[in-house]
Design goal:
- There is one protein chain.
- By secondary structure, this protein is α/β, with parallel strands linked by helices.
- It is built from 18 helices and nine strands.
- The chain has helices at about 5-10, 20-30, 50-60, 80-85, 100-105, 120-135, 160-165, 170-175, 190-210, 215-225, 230-245, 260-265, 290-300, 305-315, 380-395, 400-405, 410-415, 420-425, and strands spanning about 40, 65-70, 110-115, 135, 145, 150-155, 180, 215, 255-260.
- Strands 2-3-6-1-7 form a five-stranded parallel β-sheet, with helices on one face.
- The protein is extended and about 85 Å long.
- The N and C termini lie far apart (about 75 Å).
Length: about 425
C-alpha cells in the first residue's frame, strides 16, 4: 500500500497519525481483509482497536453481510452463552421466547468479539468449537446448528499470561491468533499526540460554534510528555474539556484562544509519570505490597538463628536442651536456583496465614543480624531469638519500636519473643 492509498484509508475511517507502527497495523488489516483468517487485535484500552475490524469487514467479501461488535466484558456471565449462541423458550428463567444468538444472526458476515479475555472458560470451549467446525448449540437445545461467521477478536490484556494462569484456553488462544495486529499506545506515538489534539479541538469548535483552542510551545511539550494511560480516548476527553472551558478566553496579544502549560496542567491528572498499570485486587486480597515487604523483612531478620544452629549441628556438638517447638521449625525455601533476571530468590510465603514465627535461611540477610552467636552447646532457637532481640533493645535503650524496625519485624512479633527480663518493664518509645 503506497502513501496515497494509506492516507485515503485513514481519511475514510477518521484515523489521525503518521506513526510507523500505526501504519503497519492499518496495512496488515487491509492485507488480511480478503481472507477468512481469524484476527486477534491487541493493544491497551483506548487505542482505537475497534477501527481494525471495521476496516477488515468493509474490505472483505463479506462487506454486504452483517457486522456485529460484541463486548464480552459487558455481558453478565450467566447470559453470555445465550447472547452468543441463542436459547430456546423455557431453557432458563426469563427465556419467554426462542432467541437467535449473534453467531446465528451474523451468518455469512463478521463478528467482532471485544475484550475476549473476559469470556468465561465454559463459553471459551463453545467458541473454540464454532471456530473449528462452525457448529454451535443453543442454550436448552440438543440440536447442532451451523454458521459461517468470520471472527475478529480484541483484547487489552496479555492472553499468554492468562493462559499460564489457567484463565484462558491455550488451544483457543492459538486458534484466535492466526493473525495478530497490535495497535500502538499513544505514548508510543508522541508525534501524533498534537495532531490528534488539533483534530479533536477542531471538531469540538465546529460542533458547538466555539473558538478553536491552540497550544503554546510549552503546552505542546507538556502534552507530549504526559504518559496518557487512557490513550486516544483520554486525549479526546481532555481536549473537549479544555475546549469547553477555555474556548471563550482570547489572548490580548494574538487574539487567539491560546492555552499555555500552566493552564493545560490543570486538566491533566497529576499522577506519577513513571507509574505503570497494576492489576486490580479484589476485596479478599487485603495484603498490600508494603505489608508483604514487611513480612519478607521479618523472615530475613530471623534467618541468622538457623544459620548459626546449622553451624553448631554440622560441628557435631549440638545437644538440644529442650525439644524445639513446632512453631520454630525452619520454613521451606525456594530451590537454590541462583538469581534470575537480577532478582534474589524469595522464600515462598502463604499470605493466607500468619508468618511471624517462620524461620528461614537466606544468604542475603542484613549484615547487622549476623552478630548473633550461640553462647553454649544447649542453645535453642528460642534463646537465639531472645539474644538477637536483647542486643537490639540494648542498642536502643529498651525502645521496642526502634528495635523492631532494626530487626525488620513488627512490634507484636517482638513482644511475643521478648526476653524474660524485658517483659515486665514499661514500654519505652522515646
Amino acid at each position: 500500500m503506497d502513501a496515497q492509498e494509506l492516507q485515503k484509508l485513514k481519511n475514510k475511517y477518521d484515523i489521525i497519525g503518521n506513526d510507523p507502527a500505526l501504519n503497519r497495523a492499518l496495512e496488515m488489516a487491509e492485507a488480511v481483509a480478503p481472507t477468512d483468517l481469524t484476527v486477534l487485535v491487541t493493544g491497551e484500552s483506548g487505542v482505537g482497536k475497534d477501527n481494525i475490524p471495521r476496516i477488515i469487514h468493509q474490505n472483505s467479501r463479506r462487506r454486504n453481510a452483517k457486522y456485529f461488535a460484541v463486548n464480552c466484558g459487558a455481558i453478565p456471565e450467566g447470559t453470555i452463552d445465550s447472547e452468543l449462541f441463542g436459547h430456546l423458550k423455557g431453557s432458563f428463567t426469563g427465556a419467554i421466547d426462542d432467541r437467535k444468538g449473534y453467531f446465528e444472526v451474523a451468518d455469512g458476515g463478521t463478528l467482532f468479539l471485544d475484550e475476549i479475555g473476559e469470556l468465561p472458560l465454559p463459553s471459551q470451549a463453545k467458541l473454540l468449537r464454532v471456530l473449528q467446525s462452525g457448529e454451535f448449540i443453543r442454550v436448552g437445545d440438543s440440536k447442532v446448528s451451523k454458521t459461517d461467521v468470520r471472527v475478529i477478536a480484541a483484547t487489552n490484556v496479555d492472553l499468554l499470561y492468562a493462559v499460564s494462569r489457567g484463565k484462558f484456553r491455550e488451544d483457543l488462544y492459538y486458534r484466535l491468533n492466526a493473525i495478530q495486529i497490535k495497535m500502538p499506545s499513544l505514548r508510543e506515538r508522541k508525534q501524533d499526540i498534537y495532531l490528534l489534539f488539533r483534530k479533536f479541538t477542531s471538531d469540538f469548535s465546529e460542533k458547538y460554534g466555539m473558538n478553536k483552542v491552540t497550544l503554546t510551545h510549552d503546552a505542546i511539550e507538556l502534552l507530549n510528555s504526559y504518559r496518557w494511560p487512557g490513550n486516544v480516548r483520554q486525549l479526546k476527553n481532555i481536549t473537549e474539556t479544555v475546549s469547553a472551558l477555555e474556548g471563550q478566553r482570547l489572548s490580548p496579544v494574538s487574539g487567539k484562544c491560546e492555552v499555555n502549560a500552566d493552564t493545560l496542567s490543570r486538566y491533566l491528572p497529576h499522577d506519577d509519570i513513571n507509574a505503570v498499570p497494576v492489576k486490580y485486587r479484589n476485596g479478599s486480597d487485603s495484603i498490600t505490597q508494603d505489608e508483604k515487604q514487611e513480612i519478607y523483612n521479618a523472615l530475613y531478620a530471623l534467618n541468622a538463628e538457623v544459620s548459626n544452629l546449622k553451624k553448631i549441628i554440622s560441628s557435631g556438638n549440638f545437644r538440644p536442651a529442650d525439644p524445639v517447638s513446632a512453631h520454630s521449625a525452619p520454613a521451606k525455601t525456594l530451590p537454590p536456583s541462583g538469581h534470575q533476571d537480577g532478582y534474589v530468590s524469595r522464600p515462598e510465603v502463604d499470605w493466607n496465614k500468619e508468618n511471624d514465627d517462620v524461620d528461614i535461611q537466606e544468604d542475603n540477610a542484613p549484615s547487622h543480624i549476623m552478630e548473633v552467636e550461640p553462647e553454649s552447646e544447649g542453645v535453642t532457637i528460642s534463646r537465639a531469638n531472645e539474644e538477637m532481640i536483647r542486643k537490639a533493645l540494648d542498642r536502643h535503650n529498651g525502645n521496642r519500636k526502634k528495635a523492631a524496625e532494626e530487626l525488620g519485624i513488627s512490634e507484636r512479633t517482638l513482644y511475643r519473643k521478648l526476653p524474660p527480663e524485658y517483659r515486665n518493664q514499661r514500654k519505652t518509645d522515646d
